[in-house]
Structure formats: C-alpha cells, structure tokens
Amino acid sequence: MARPYTQIKLFSQRSDNIKKVSIREVAKEAGVSISTVSKALNDVDVVTPLTKQKVLAAAEKLNYVPNMMGKQLKLGQTKVIGFYTRSIEAPYFSSIADVIAHEVGKHGYNLNIFMSSNKQFVMTNILGNMVDGLIGFEELLTEEDLRTLQKRNVKAVFIDRNIKSETMGSVVFNSNQAARQMTEHLIELGHRQIGFIRSHEGVYDSQERLRGYQMAMQAAGIAIKEEDILRGNFSEADTQRVLTDYLKRKQQLPTAFVAGNDLSAIGAIKAFKRFGYRVPEDVSVTGFDNIAVLEYFTPGLTTFDNPIELQGKTAVAHLIDLMEGKAKGEVFELAGEMVMRNSTRALK
C-alpha cells in the first residue's frame, strides 16, 4: 500500500541566492493574465485544460514557487504541523519522525522539522503562524514558554514529557514501571550491586526510569550507591566517556548496570570491553527502547521494547483532535515489554 505523500522540511541556517520568479513572469511566459495563472495553479475548474497545461509548463520552465505565505494568510491555516528537536542523530528520532510524517500526511498535512537548540528560533516559528499545530520533543521549551503557547491557543502534543492542559497533551512511556521491572529482573538473577546510567536533569523518561530503579532497589532492601549512578545523557559517546573515567578509578564494579536507553547501554558495553570486562560474564547490562540497530550489535542486548510507532501515531491523532476541537489535552501512557537477550546472566 502506497504511503500518502508528505512534504518534510528540515529547517537550518543557510544562504539562498536563488532568484525568485514572480507570478507576473509566469503569466508573461504562458501568454495569459495573472489571474489565469493563479486559477490554474490552484486548480480552479474555470480554466480550460489547454490553458492550464500552458501555465504549468511555464511555471516548471521558470522554476516558479508559489507564495505560500499569502495563501496561508487567506486560508487562516498552513496545513503544516511543526516538530522540534535538538538533534536527529539518535535512532529513536528517525523512527518516530518517520511515523509522524506518515500520519500527518494521512490527514492532509505536511511536516516541518525544526532542529535547533535555539529556543527563540523555535518559538518564533510557532508564534509566527508557520504551523497549525506542534509536536514537541525534548525539554527545550520552559514552563514560561508553555504558558505563552497556551495564551496564544497553540495546540500541541509533547512526546516524552508529561504535560496536560486544555490545549496541550502528551504521549509518554510507562518508564517508571519498565525500570522497576528491569531492575527486579536483575535482582531475580541474583544481582545485589546494580548501577544506573541516567540522562540530563529534567528529561522525563530518565527521571522516571531512575525512580523506578530506586523503587525496585529499595523494595528489595538493597542499598544504592550514588557513585554507581552515572550520567550518560542518553548518548553512546557520552556514556563511553563517563564510564571510562569511572572504570579508571573504581576498584570494585557493580555486577550489573541498568542503562537509561539503548544508546547508553551500547556505550557502556563498548567501555567495558575496552577495559577487558566481558558482558555478561563479568557485568550484565540492560537498556530501553529496543532500537533497530540492536539487530547488528553483539552481545544481544536485554532491553525494554517501547512502542515507538504507536507513540508517534497517538501523538498525531491527539493533535488533530485538539486542532479540530474534538478533545482537550490528555496524557497517554503507553506500556512496552521486556525483550530477553544475552547481555545479562544469573549469578551463581
């Protein structure tokens, strides 16, 4: 089944020296009036097929791009949904962005991806009526920014961030329960010294997974050593770096680590291998998300399979309902399941 066509624009800084062609030049090339060009390009049926063909040929020859901003102002909508993120590097992003693009296309929208750490850039595009609705990713916008968006009646759905208001909703994983289950699994295997690799402060999934790990450890009566909670920032490279420093000074390792996501788990395993530790013979490692690249990674990573595709579909469906006035903001919490592979082992 063919996918609906969806235009994706990825915004970044660039210089553009291409000469813009006016509608007047298209009309002159086609030998018709400006109003005829406008009608032909907008598929108004008063234009004959022959005239329309001439106009389209002239527009293609001159590489004419319509002034969409003028059309948007007339219609009061852009038919564009915005999606912001700091980075497109992580496999999780590419998976969910693909789903979102597909889903917005089914509803007749295009997708603009704003990749920036510049909060003002993102806010300007949102408040400048460049999009009809917003899907937010990561913690870029502050509580004050959210209040501004609410005052402007901007419809938004946030991924991996628990937000609920009349105009805003969110889609999150049940990360707390998943981390509790993962930690309990390691405890059942006989592990009593278990470390944790978290992300930045304020990242919802990281906070919830850390809390779930802490709850499982406390319920089992196992002491948590703060020195064994490391910050890998959900990044393979950052995790390798922080774990390398940790291994240089650490005399006795935990027998297992719960990594906050799969990229951190991969970074940890690579660091352990560099120092001569075997996974899982010397140390067990687990992750979260079950990203596609794990298929090619050795050892096979025990992880938590989060329904990323369902997360993207739910976010778009809820945003469309908000935009059409069919719903008020809600929080949708999705559950995943543990995937057992061979990066963990039972202690004798």
Helix and strand pattern: EHHHHEHEHEHEEHEHEHEHEEHEE
CATH topology type of the largest domain: Rossmann fold
State the domain count.
3
- Note poorly predicted spans: 1-5, 12-18
Shape descriptor: elongated
Q: Helix share of residues?
A: 40-55%
Which strand-content bin applies to the residues? 15-25%
By DSSP, the count of extended strands is 13
Major sheet strand order: 1-3-2-4-5-6-12
Please tally the helical runs, counting DSSP H or I stretches of 4 or more residues: 12
State the end-to-end CA separation.
52 Å
CATH class call of the largest domain = Alpha Beta
CATH superfamily of the largest domain: Response regulator
CATH architecture of the largest domain: 3-Layer(aba) Sandwich
Instruction: Name the average pLDDT.
Output: 88
Radius of gyration, whole Å: 25 Å
Query: What class would the helix/strand composition place it in?
Result: alpha/beta
Largest sheet: 7 strands, parallel
Describe the structure.
By secondary structure, this protein is α/β, with parallel strands linked by helices. It folds into 3 domains: 21-64, 434 Repressor (Amino-terminal Domain); 77-173 and 308-336, Response regulator (Rossmann fold), CATH 3.40.50.2300; 175-306, Rossmann fold (3-Layer(aba) Sandwich), CATH 3.40.50.2300. 42% of the residues lie in helices and 16% in strands. It has a 7-stranded parallel β-sheet with strand order 1-3-2-4-5-6-12, covered by helices on one side. Strands 8-7-9-10 form a 4-stranded parallel β-sheet, with helices on both faces. Strands 11-13 form a two-stranded antiparallel ribbon. Strand 7, helix 9 and strand 8 form a beta-alpha-beta unit. The longest helix is centred in the N-terminal third of the chain and has 16 residues, at 91-106. 39% of the residues are buried.
